[in-house]
Structure formats: structure tokens, C-alpha cells
Amino acid sequence: MRATFDPEAARGVHETYELHIGEELFHMVVADGTLKAAAGPAGRPDFVMITDVVTFMAIGAGQLSPIDALMNGQADMKGEADAAMRCLAIFGFGRTASSVLPGSSGSAPIPSRTEESRAR
User: Fold this and answer.
1) How far apart are CA 117 and CA 109, in angstroms?
2) What percent of the chain has pLDDT over 90?
3) Mean pLDDT for the chain?
4) Model confidence at 4, in pLDDT bands (50, 70, 90)?
């Protein structure tokens, strides 16, 4: 994550992100252009992403958009849409993918796959 971290995109941001990638769980604290990453869960994450390694790599490489991964069940994301968008921008996820997360113009929560299943 440090390799893709963009300190300029992180200027003015004070958020915590939690990632569940396959069997790995870690979190990142972004504070005004700086990054601290550690293993384990975050106390109060602003954004959580849960996916497998292959999907995570495809999103990172721009081969799969985060919204496509969410909609087709390859990823689950929880938290505020704006926090998700900042996280994706700060770490460069989906830079070449065309889709963006729904609700990114406001601070609406991202519906998880579980919530979407219940709505159907």
C-alpha cells in the first residue's frame, strides 16, 4: 500500500481505512498527507473493503472497477461513499477503470452486498 500511496491526494484527509484481503486484515491511518499502516482491525474505520487477493489486484491494476467488484459480488465495501472515494484516490485504485462508486457526490453510506440482498 505504501508503494501506491499518494501523499498529495491525502493532504487534508484524516481517515482510517480497513482492508480484508483474503486471509489478511490490516488498516491504514491517513493523516494530512501521511500514512501509518498496521496489521489487524481499525478501531473506527471510515471505510472497509473486503475482497479476495485476485480481485484486489485487478482493482489495483485498473482491470476491474471498484463498483463492478461490488456489484458482481467480488468485493464488499462499507462506510461513507466519500471516504471510499478518497481511499480509492489516495491509493490509486481503479485509476484506469471507468466506473465510480455510487453516492460519491454526498456522504451516503455504501450499501454492502448483504444489505443489497435483503432489499431484493
Assistant:
1) 16
2) 64
3) 83
4) confident
Label residue 65 left, alpha or beta by phi (over 0 means left) and psi (-120 to 50 means alpha): beta
Q: What does the pLDDT read at residue 99?
A: 41
The rounded distance, in Å, linking the Cα atoms of 58 and 46 is 23
- 70 CB-side CA count, 13 A: 22
Specify burial of residue 62 (Cβ count, 10 A radius: 0-12, 13-18, 19+): middle
- CB 53: neighbour CB atoms within 10 A? 11
Distances (CA, A) of 95 to 32, 43, 48, 62, 75: 21, 28, 19, 6, 17
**What are the chain's domains?**
14-119 (3.30.1050.10)
DSSP letter string, 15-79: EEEEEEETTEEEEEEEETTEEEEEES--SS-SEEEEE-HHHHHHHHTTSS-HHHHHHTTSEEEEE
Q: What pLDDT score was predicted for residue 100?
A: 43
Average of pLDDT values for 38-45?
96
